[in-house]
# Entry
Amino acid sequence: MNTKSHRANNVSDDLDRVRLAAIVDSSFDAIVSKDLDGTVRTWNAAAERLFGFSADEMIGQSILKLVPEHLHSEEKDILKRLRHGERIESFETVRQRKDGTYISISLTISPIRNGMGTIVGASKIARDNTSVKDKERRIRVLLREINHRVKNQYAIILSMIRLTRDHAEDASVFERQIRERIMALSASHDLLVSAEWAGAPLSDVIHTQLRPFRQDHAVTIDGPPVILTPTAVENLGMAFHELAMNSSEKGVLNRAQGTIVISWAMAAGSFEISWVETFEPETPRFISTRSGFGSIILKRIAPQALNSAAQMVHEGKTFTWSLQGPLDGFVAPAIAL
# Structure
């Protein structure tokens, strides 16, 4: 090879090295190289961002500086397998940052060979997969929550069927009431699903349950913004559906006369919510005293689920249903919208 060709090849090699160095330095993944004894030889900017150590702090140091003590055997096994030329598949592990915190990473390891083809070290590409792990954890939590909720709903629906059947006048009434009650339950679930089962705004629960009755002009809603717990969403959702359904048959939502005021308040660790319906003219026997499904929801199921006390009173032109109990049973930890 003549001198001119040799120089051209050297220039080409230099350019390749510069390009490679630029790629490594600008990578969003941490790229580190080490000798077969675990001594760090290169350390890119992403490695510094990921682990907190600068290149000056890591180059010449043992890679074990990043490895939690209980995983030292993992690193030693990797070095042993590299010396034997074994292929190492990408895997997930944990490393320790400069500040002592742990980080979940995905690690890819490739051997580094010299001009003779002998393995003299390894390059590592580390990618932060904390967000992936967080998503997996959230999915597991959601699946457990859904499984729990579904089992509860089976019990509620079976109770709906039995009690509605016992008090329905005929098959058509039974079919309509079951359909409406299951749709009301489904509407509450839609609110929970949209918020990943974390809860839902109380105002949304009320509007969702009253929407099918289309009498918003008769209803006043008054209370501070709050996020209900999932249990409160389900039980208050069923309660408001039963109240609205009863009103649509015998009260304000049927006659389009009178008013309904739904209000709630928080004080000294307690929560109180009420439905106050005022009739024009006076309505006799507004709410059934029999043990139908609606009455059981309002008097027993919702109060028990929310560790609260219910009151239901019909006097003259006014019907009142109220529920009072511990604040944490109703309101999710972040109560402000």
